[in-house]
Amino acid sequence: MAIRLLLIDDHAVVRTGLRMLLETEADIEIAGEAGTAAEGLAAAAALAPDVVLMDIGLPDRSGIEAAREIKARAPSTAVVALTIHEDEEYFFKMLEAGASGYVPKRAAPEELVTAIRAAARGEVYLYPSLAKLLVKDYIAQEPSGAAARTLDGLTAREQEVLELLAEGAGNPEIADRLHISPKTVARHRENIMGKLNLHSRSELVKYAIRKGIIQA
Questions:
Q1: By the number of CB atoms within 10 A of the CB, which of 18, 20, 119, 143 ranks highest?
Q2: Which residues does 211 contact at the CB level (< 8 Å), separation at least 6?
Q3: Of 76, 78, 71, which is closest to residue 5 (Cα–Cα)?
Q4: Residue 207's closest CA among 150, 156, 157, 129?
Q5: Whole-number mean pLDDT of the chain?
Q6: Domains with residue ranges and CATH for the chain
Q7: Using CA of residue 66, residue 68, residue 72, residue 75, what is the dihedral sign?
Q8: At residue 109, does pLDDT exceed 50?
């Protein structure tokens, strides 16, 4: 089944270019377009897309606020930011709003397609250079020493699964790499989320970053 995608960008020429690029992908279907945050919120409610690809700088309202509202209304809809902004302030705020991906407009087309597919699978995609900023920031805020490395009662196997999940691997890939069944991976993932009181893939990634599991 194709990934149903909603495009939100205030520049018609950008939307046209994205449509032309993404329509060549057999597994991506453009469900709709919007040029403002208000139009995007209405379209997201009406179309229930799998993924919303949106700019941050919208004319009527911040894309960050719009992303937060989309996630509040439809938690299963993934949001990917495609933006000219590469500074930490926008990056952190978009992740806190619930975005599953953050891709600069200078990125190669294949990076964007990868981000959309990852988001549709319930995974997180962060452009490499920005991911490193995030890792360094979170690690810098954590206390050093053994306390920072404590993984809140996770077993050794759960720690392995956590690391792979945080790196963006899906259940089948984790099962293959650890030589266990996908059902076992799913059970470990459920246990991890329960022990750590996490509720989304984004929260899991942030936890792994705070604990220094993902290295810059």
A1: 119
A2: 142, 148, 149, 151
A3: 78
A4: 150
A5: 85
A6: 3-127 (3.40.50.2300), 142-210 (1.10.10.10)
A7: positive
A8: yes
Report which of 130, 125, 124, 150 is spatially closest to residue 212, judged by C-alpha positions. 150
Beta strands (DSSP E) in 129-177 are none
Query: In this structure, which amino acid lies at residue 45?
Result: A
Give the pLDDT confidence of 35-93 residue by residue, as tens digits.
999 999 999 999 999 999 999 999 999 999 999 999 999 988 999 999 898 777 788 88
Task: Map tokens 């470990």 to a residue.
Answer: 188
- pLDDT tens-digit profile of 189-208? 888 888 888 877 667 777 77
Question: Tokens 């604990």 label which residue?
Answer: 211
The H or E element spanning position 42 is helix 37-47
